[in-house]
From TrEMBL, chain A:
InterPro entries: Asp/Glu-ADT_sf_sub_c, GatC. Heterotrimer of A, B and C subunits. It is an enzyme of class 6 (ligase). It holds the Pfam family GatC. This is Aspartyl/glutamyl-tRNA(Asn/Gln) amidotransferase subunit C. The lineage of its organism: Bacteria, Bacillati, Actinomycetota, Actinomycetes, Propionibacteriales. It comes from Nocardioides luti.
Automatic annotation (TrEMBL), chain B:
It is an enzyme of class 6 (ligase). This is Glutamyl-tRNA(Gln) amidotransferase subunit A. The lineage of its organism: Bacteria, Bacillati, Actinomycetota, Actinomycetes, Propionibacteriales. Pfam families: Amidase (PF01425). It comes from Nocardioides luti. GO terms for biological process: translation.
Length: 99, 516
């Protein structure tokens, strides 16, 4: 079972869009290693002949009639927004300087 | 143990079961407004010490109670529990009432809509007392991971109330609410039920709508009842259960007759019932007092006519590992929606001029999520990354298949499967906070049911001799056979109550005058 390094945790945090400070990285890395060690036993438990189950019950697609029905108003949908402008969510810039 | 509340049980409405309250309302002995006020008074008296609630809605609850009294006056009852108040775990969206999932990232968020469970509670006339405390985004086994501080176990305020639904269980155990709603992803209704001496039910996956339930791991999450008796759970389950077109995983089949099953079970005859004791869910790691109470309950089932068979579910030993890979994987995906753009917290990073959306997202998620949530999101990101996917997540999904097969084989030999609900009684607050594995082990016996989608109930089985704290007896049934839980649970409950001379919770401390 691979130990998870501090740099790997920083990389994963970056993928998950969470800023972690040095203290958090120092704290998390050893804990994640312990957790991964305890779940490593799962490797090799089931062979190729065992199909994976993603859901406890068989899923079927669910359709409804393609008709208009009541939904949230724009005001309701925006009611929890941290910032809004002209009936829209107001967000920080999306493209970086180099883009 | 202290005596019950100083007010006599004759007039203290908070000591009654939901079924008794419904009868008292029907007989005109009390109004819903009086009942609701009695519970609000109890909350005011003891919740400073218990901290079961994150938000109490006195005004709203009393208005709903008044509406119930009005309906009753006109002979138009909305359900058998019309007028009986309830508490709701803070993971369910409630229109006009804050919903935080125990997280800073949603502090102050007021949903513009109700979860289907809440729609059904309102339609059935149950006044909603407030929202109960929980581990942040339902990640935890002790309610210590709430961003708003832990809930305390009413049996011993220095101990955990279980998790993640510790607030719902503690509210019911502390007589602050006769009924509550919880959600169970790996045991978060049943395990808190076990350690607080309450009844907790995880219905069949898809049996109760998940619409408006903030998802932790959507293939495992299931809302269900938290109550003081098996019959109360059945009454509540019939109100919240059943098909919902707004949830594509909702089972489109009628619910079995749950209340009838509970009433039939309470008569105490289990002749011909085959009870399977799962070899892998007992023994090592289980507290002796918990095992002793389990054995005693088994003996009572035998006396009621049941036949005990030993069943082995060899893949269950891998259930915890599979769960702690599947859950973080789904959680890391589900929690991506907390991106500081549409709702909740937005934190602007310091030292960055003109920050981008991504900068804001990182800073917000760091500030808004607690340690356990970060731990699991990062673990999930790892389990889903290229190169590790097959070894971890893929294997976990295959183990899920093996666990379902174990259940199928076991249910050929037995009508229900049983085990202790949790391996130990409530541990001390703070005791396992820095040891995630020790914390995760609490869900050992409850997790297999979530992986396979089968229903389960935890019924109080008594107090462990070594510490005087409650233990739970878990009953599992095949998918869609939730009625079996109620039949067997009610039979056990009746036999135990006869032995104890009354409900277990009558032995709990009074809490009056307690402070946190």
């Amino acid at each position: 079972m691979p130990d998870i390094s501090r740099d790997e945790v920083a990389h994963l945090a970056n993928l998950a869009r969470i800023d972690l400070d040095d203290a958090e990285l120092d704290h998390l890395a050893p804990q994640l290693s312990v957790i991964l060690e305890s779940v490593a036993s799962i490797q090799g438990v089931a062979g190729d002949d065992i199909p994976p189950t993603s859901h406890a019950l068989p899923l079927t697609n669910v359709f409804r009639e393609d008709v208009l029905r009541p939904s949230l108003t724009a005001e309701q949908a925006l009611s929890g927004a941290p910032a809004q402008e002209q009936q829209r969510f107001s967000v920080p810039r999306i493209l970086g300087d180099e883009q | 143990m202290s005596a019950p509340s100083s007010t006599t049980t004759g007039t203290d409405w908070t000591r009654r079961t939901a079924a008794e309250l419904a009868d008292a309302l029907a007989a005109g002995e009390v109004t819903s407004v009086e009942l609701t006020q009695a519970h609000l008074d109890r909350i005011a008296a003891v919740d400073g010490a218990v901290h079961a609630f994150l938000h109490v809605d006195a005004e709203g609850a009393l208005a709903q109670a008044a509406a119930s009294d009005e309906r009753r006056a006109h002979g138009q009852l909305a359900s058998p529990l019309d007028g009986v108040p309830i508490a709701v775990k803070d993971v369910l969206a409630t229109q006009g009432l804050p919903t935080t999932c125990g997280s800073k990232i949603l502090e102050g968020w007021v949903p513009p809509y109700d979860a289907t469970v809440v729609v059904r509670l309102r339609a059935a006339g149950l006044p909603i007392l407030g929202k109960t405390n929980m581990d942040e985004f339902a990640m935890g086994s002790s309610t210590e991971h709430s961003a708003y501080g832990p809930t305390h176990n009413p049996w011993d305020l220095d101990r955990i109330p279980g998790g993640s639904g510790g607030g719902s269980a503690a509210a019911v155990a502390a007589f602050e609410a006769p009924l509550a709603i919880g959600t169970d992803t790996g045991g978060s209704i049943r395990q808190p039920g076990a350690v607080t001496g309450t009844v907790g039910v995880k219905p069949t996956y898809g049996g109760v709508s998940r619409f408006g339930l903030v998802a932790l791991a959507n293939s495992l999450d299931q809302a269900g009842p938290v109550t003081r008796t098996v019959l109360d759970s059945a009454l509540l389950h019939e109100i919240i259960g059943g098909h919902d077109p707004l949830d594509s995983t909702s089972v489109d089949q009628p619910l079995p007759a749950l209340v009838d099953a509970a009433r039939q079970g309470a008569a105490g005859d289990l002749t011909g019932l085959r009870v399977g004791v799962v070899t892998e869910l007992g023994g090592d790691g289980y507290q002796p007092g918990v095992l002793a109470r389990f054995q005693e309950s088994l003996d009572l089932l035998v006396k009621a006519g049941a036949e005990i068979v030993e069943v082995s579910c060899p893949s269950f030993v891998h259930a915890m590992a599979a769960y702690y890979l599947i859950l973080p994987a789904e959680a890391s995906s589900n929690l991506a929606k907390f991106d500081a753009m549409r709702y909740g917290l937005r934190v602007l990073p310091e030292h960055i001029d003109n920050p981008s959306a991504e900068d804001v997202m990182r800073a917000t998620r760091d500030a808004g999520f607690g340690d356990e949530v970060k731990r699991r999101i990062i673990l999930g990101t790892y389990a889903l990354s290229s190169g590790y996917y097959d070894a971890y997540y893929g294997q976990a999904q295959k183990v899920r298949t093996l666990i379902s097969r174990d259940f199928e084989a076991a249910f050929e030999k037995a009508d229900v499967l049983v085990s202790p609900t949790a391996p130990t009684t409530a541990f001390k607050l703070g005791e396992k906070l820095d040891d995630p594995i020790a914390m995760y082990l609490n869900d050992l016996a409850t997790i297999p049911a979530n992986l396979a989608g089968v229903p389960g109930i935890s019924v109080p089985s008594g107090l462990a001799e070594e510490d005087g704290l409650p233990a739970g007896f878990q009953i599992l049934a095949p998918a869609l056979a939730d009625d079996r839980l109620y039949r067997v649970g009610a039979a056990l409950e009746a036999a135990l109550a006869a032995q104890w001379g009354g409900p277990l919770l009558d032995q709990a401390p009074a809490l009056e005058g307690a402070s946190a």
